[in-house]
Amino acid sequence: EVQLVESGGGLVQPGGSLRLSCAASGFTVSSNYMSWVRQAPGKGLEWVSVIYTGGTTYYADSVKGRFTISRDNSKNTLYLQMNSLRAEDTAVYYCARTRGTTVFFDYWGQGTLVTVSS
Amino acid sequence: DIQMTQSPSTLSASVGDRVTITCRASQSISSWLAWYQQKPGKAPKLLINKASSLENGVPSRFSGSGSGTEFTLTISSLQPDDFATYYCQQYNSFLPTFGGGTKVEIK
User: What is the DSSP letter of B55?
Assistant: First the structure.
């Protein structure tokens, strides 16, 4: 059974950093494109970042230069390093698996809440 | 970036109603469109990919159609479990984008 479990969210001050983790089971992270998608409170879904099987990464303009997606193949875990956090980064962050080489999301984690506030 | 516009943003309907949600893309995305259902406090659930391909286990009352820039999600007979928010998402571009969502409420 495919499962994705996020962790690492919490309260952080503006300008601070946080690293999110997404532990996967039932499939191999490195064999799939993997993404982070976020949802601000009461708002819609916003794609954040993707890492391809070969290691190529892409980012939404809103996080480019501040966030870094990565994976640890030995731990079958996806990460999102978030630096220079802003109030507008406050959201539930979901990790999501894509199907094949098309970036739509067939499995999602339960999400982890990041709150950026002083 | 490709912009996705959903309408309506809110829809009030009764059990048994036929419901249609529209999603428009700012440029042609062929059939590279997915639909998701999200309930409060839960992760989105994939319903349809490639505009009209129903995911395994999704009830057949859900259907998708369209290509190019205009797409629809139809629920043929609304059931109590279907009251939720629905999102479209394009994946024609390597930067995927979502529509703003359509909340289906009980009338």
Answer: P
The whole-angstrom separation of Cα B36 and Cα B91 is 13
Tell me which DSSP letter residue B60 carries: T
- pLDDT tens for each residue of chain B, 107 residues long: 899 999 999 999 999 999 999 999 999 999 999 999 999 999 999 999 999 999 999 999 999 999 999 999 999 999 999 999 999 999 998 899 999 999 999 88
Q: Residue A6's closest chain B neighbor by CA?
A: B43
B96 touches chain A (CB under 8 A): yes
Cβ-based neighbours of A91, under 8 Å, separated by 6 or more: A38, A39, A40, A41, A43, A46, A113, A114
Look-up of token digits 């970042």: A49
Residues A100 and B24: their CA atoms lie apart, in Å, by 25
Residue B18 in tokens: 């036929």
Cβ(A89)–Cβ(A82) under 8 Å? yes
Q: How far apart are CA B59 and CA B63, in angstroms?
A: 9
Query: Which residues of B fall within a CB distance of 8 Å from A44?
Result: 87, 98-101
Kindly tell me the burial class for residue A31, based on how many C-beta atoms sit within 10 Å of its own C-beta (0-12, 13-18, 19 or more): exposed
DSSP B41: T
